[in-house]
Amino acid sequence: MSGSSDYIPPKVWTWNKANGGQFASINRPIAGPTHEKELPIGRHPLQLYSLGTPNGQKVTIMLEELLALGHSGAEYDAWLIRIGDGDQFGSDFVKINPNSKIPALMDRSGETPIRVFESGAILTYLAEKFGTFLPTVPAARAECLSWLFWQMGSAPYLGGGFGHFYAYAPTKIEYAIDRFAMEVKRQLDVLDRRLAESEYLAGSQYTIADIAVWPWYGGLVKGWTYGAAEFLRVEDYKNVQRWADAVFSRPAVQRGRMVNRLSGDLSSQLHERHDASDFDTRTQDKLAAAE
Ligand SMILES: N[C@@H](CCC(=O)N[C@@H](CS)C(=O)NCC(=O)O)C(=O)O
């Protein structure tokens, strides 16, 4: 097995700023703001500061689903936070999320603004505020929250573990890739077995559990993530494939996936969203480009 077996950890770890990794310029061993920066505030009750990564998509999908149900209180401004440029370390952003990660939400609908960070907390907050996508019957609610928290605990192995070492690390370390590929395949099998017995993760209803899990694991089985579809043989997970297609067929999911997105086909990127009509503008741009 190939690896960096010549490395012996020193007695005390020190911060080697030039370790060469893809995220070397933004990763730090300390928290807190690096610079003063005011965040913009739009006209809607909800102000979202985010980026269209899987963690960011969870919230924009939820907001688009709420709007599709007619909840006008879910109108939102989605501002772009460029994590590659260090926007997450700006003073105003850190006041909303002391953990300096997207997504971060400010609810300005009441007298006192309410901050919410961590995507799972944001989904739960919105589900409770609007009374939907989180079952109230105890058994179904427990199932929904179990899968929601499963996602929060599992996705770091997929993103920070497998994705990091397979796609981003400056050297390919067989031990690390092997360890995390095994875990990700185990997680896909967990989902596949659940989705063999249940239409959606929490039961027959689409809930915030599906909204949280889909951007990570739906994207993975559709071959959108890390260029790893063949390596992980994602076509084997038939029930996850069926569920991923069903979730992606929802117009709100397709809209939510576009918001704050900086990669992929240009016509699928809506860098900021301040009005429902912003999506139409995108569609018109697409049609104009095709002419
Ligand atoms: N557990 C967090 C994870 C958030 C997260 O990892 N966000 C990433 C982008 S996907 C980020 O902001 N990274 C910037 C950084 O680490 O400095 C959540 O679910 O909200």
Structure description:
The protein has 291 residues and is α+β, with helices and mostly antiparallel strands. It has a domain at 138-255: Up-down Bundle (Glutathione S-transferase Yfyf (Class Pi), Chain A, domain 2). It is 47% helix and 6% strand. It has ten helices and four strands. It has helices at residues 54-68, 91-96, 119-130, 138-168, 174-197, 208-221, 229-232, 238-248, 251-258, 278-290; strands at residues 46-50, 76-80, 104-107, 114-117. It has a four-stranded mixed sheet, covered by helices on one side. α4 (138-168) packs antiparallel against α5, α4 (138-168) packs parallel to α6 (208-221) and α6 (208-221) packs across α8 (238-248). The model has no long low-confidence stretch (mean pLDDT 94). The site of glutathione has 12 residues, from α3.
- Return the CATH topology of the domain at 138-255: Glutathione S-transferase Yfyf (Class Pi), Chain A, domain 2
What form results from the Cα inertia axes? globular
Biggest sheet layout: 4 strands, mixed
> Which structural category do the helix and sheet elements fall into?
alpha+beta
Distance between the termini: 53 Å
The parts where pLDDT drops under 50 for at least 5 residues are none
Strand content range:
5-15%
Give me the CATH architecture of the domain at 138-255, please. Answer: Up-down Bundle
Heteromolecules bound: glutathione
